[in-house]
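sorry for the late reply, my laptop died twice this morning and i had to redo everyting from scratch. anyway the thing you sent over, i finally got around to it. pasting the sequence first so we're on the same page, its 309 residues, then the predicted structure underneath. double check i copied it right bc i was rushing
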Amino acid sequence: MKFWIGATLVLAALVALTATLQYEYFFFAGYTVLMFVVLATAWNILGGYAGYVNFGTPAFFGLGAYTAAVLYKAWALPLVLQVAAAATMAGLLGCAAGLLTLRLRGIFFAIATIALTVIMETVFINWRYAGGATGLQLLRPPPIAPFESYIKMLFVLMAVMAVTAVALARYVERSWLGRGLRAIRDSEEAAEASGVPTLKLKVFACTLSGALMGAAGAPMPMYLSFIEPASTFNLNYAVGALASPMIGGTAHWLGPVIGAVLLSSLQQIVTVTVSNELNVLVVGVLLVVFIVAAPEGILGLFKRFFKRP
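ok and here's the structure:
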């Protein structure tokens, strides 16, 4: 109950900002922060709970973005239907990828997910209807009332998606699904010997993680009014989605949220004040610092600091 009250208050505060704050850049930056909350939360379902490090975030994110763009170009579908279709397509890709690759472990699984990103990028580079290598220009439709600008509408949509993603991750963590995934992370052989349906749980985690990543990518074409393969399937999405849970903490649903808000906000500040090229450096430095000094993330530090005898 406390979670839902807090989530409702946060969502109401963000919606209220759209009516009171006129500074458009805040919503541009806020959209990116919330998008990485969704990506980090989605990554943590498979990478944090189950322990399968996934570098394929751009594959699911890009598929979601291109699904939305193609549907808008073909039939001008509303944004909500674009998001639903993107989540479905990315979820199917996650299920297929899970069945094909989740028998691999460690570095072999990580390499397979990178290969998946390369394959998806190659497909869309060679699909002329989707713009090919040159990309696709999109014209935003008018915003829906009561929003006065389209970017504010996208900001609220991403806020709703972030709350939904966190709620799903919290449910998975506290259910038998989360207990099974944690058993897989600790020792997959012991989990199988104990009767845990390891393959089913891993495919479920990969499907849910992929669907959330695809949904996060769906509004991106309208956010930029443009889409092209090189930036859409950029590995920076994988780095950000992986780094946020590592910084915040992978053992709890709140960790990816803390890490994504901290890291993405810092990146936005660096972009405005210094240079966009320093974004990757910021991620790298923070990731190294937390891996060395606090391998359990910010939540781990908090628990250690306030631990009672």
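The chain is about 75% helix and 0% strand.
thats about all i looked at so far, will dig more tmrw
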